[in-house]
UniProtKB/TrEMBL annotation:
Annotated ranges, domain HTH tetR-type: 33-93
SUPFAM superfamilies for this protein: Homeodomain-like (SSF46689)
PROSITE patterns linked to this entry: HTH_TETR_2 (PS50977)
UniProt entry keywords in alphabetical sequence: DNA-binding
Pfam families: TetR_N
Keyword Iron-sulfur set for record: no
The keyword DNA-binding is annotated on this UniProt entry: yes
UniProt-annotated stretches for the region Disordered: 1-32
Source organism per UniProt: Streptomyces gulbargensis
Chain residues forming the annotated DNA-binding region: 56-75
InterPro entries: Homeodomain-like_sf, HTH-type_TetR-like_transc_reg, HTH_TetR
Lineage: Bacteria, Bacillati, Actinomycetota, Actinomycetes, Kitasatosporales
Protein name listed in UniProt: TetR/AcrR family transcriptional regulator
Start-end of Low complexity biased regions: 1-27
Length: 211
């Protein structure tokens, strides 16, 4: 998978590269790390409130309290800032289910971990639905070749193998992750006005249908 970051002038397609696999970010000074966190948190708030199309470097600078020159030096342009935002949130999510506290992280029974993972995935997709939807709209099948999906699929398949030995965990993991496509989540939460709590309850009910 290509790891090229979006460049200035790129169209919607580079959003497909916004779905990273797990890896450690480059080390940086403490003050630089604090500024990066403020900038990314400010960008996340703007995306959540107004959508990714509303993000500008000036708005992010104002919302974060960081000089606009610093924002540009750190991220270059809006497309690279959005890439970094998705990368940051994906790393946080992966760290939580791979090495965080139980039940999402290791230490809980596989059934509890799977429930916690699916609940967290509802929140994850809902939080950045608009950016993920833009990537999905550009190339719907791109979701399944990205590093983030492969990490999630492997995690779910391993949990299913513990829960149902002998079952086709690889296939079941794909089917279990299918409802979390950004376009379906958008339809349910925006068009149908369903709450995240109702989505989480629905996923749990779906798992119980054949248990």
């Amino acid at each position: 998978m290509s790891t090229r970051k979006p460049q200035a002038g790129d169209g919607p397609a580079p959003l497909l590269g916004l779905l990273p696999s797990r890896g450690a970010p480059a080390p940086e000074r403490a003050d630089a790390a604090r500024n990066r966190r403020k900038i990314l948190d400010a960008a996340a708030r703007i995306v959540a409130e107004k959508g990714p199309e509303a993000v500008t470097m000036n708005q992010v600078a104002h919302a974060s309290g960081i000089g606009v020159g610093t924002v540009y030096r750190r991220f270059g342009d809006v497309s690279q800032l959005l890439w970094a935002l998705l990368d940051d949130r994906e790393r946080q999510f992966q760290e939580a289910f791979m090495s965080g506290p139980p039940p999402l992280g290791p230490g809980a029974p596989p059934g509890e971990r799977l429930d916690a993972f699916l609940d967290a995935l509802v929140d994850r997709v809902g939080e950045q639905r608009e950016i993920l939807l833009a990537a999905h709209s550009a190339a719907p099948r791109g979701r399944y070749t990205g590093g983030a999906y492969r990490v999630m699929h492997t995690h779910v398949a391993l949990l299913l193998a513990q829960l149902r030995p002998g079952a086709d965990g690889t296939l079941l993991a794909h089917l279990l992750l299918a409802p979390f496509s950004p376009d379906l989540v958008h339809h349910l939460t925006v068009d149908q006005d369903l709450s995240t709590d109702r989505l989480k309850a629905g996923v749990r009910d779906l798992l119980k249908l054949r248990s």
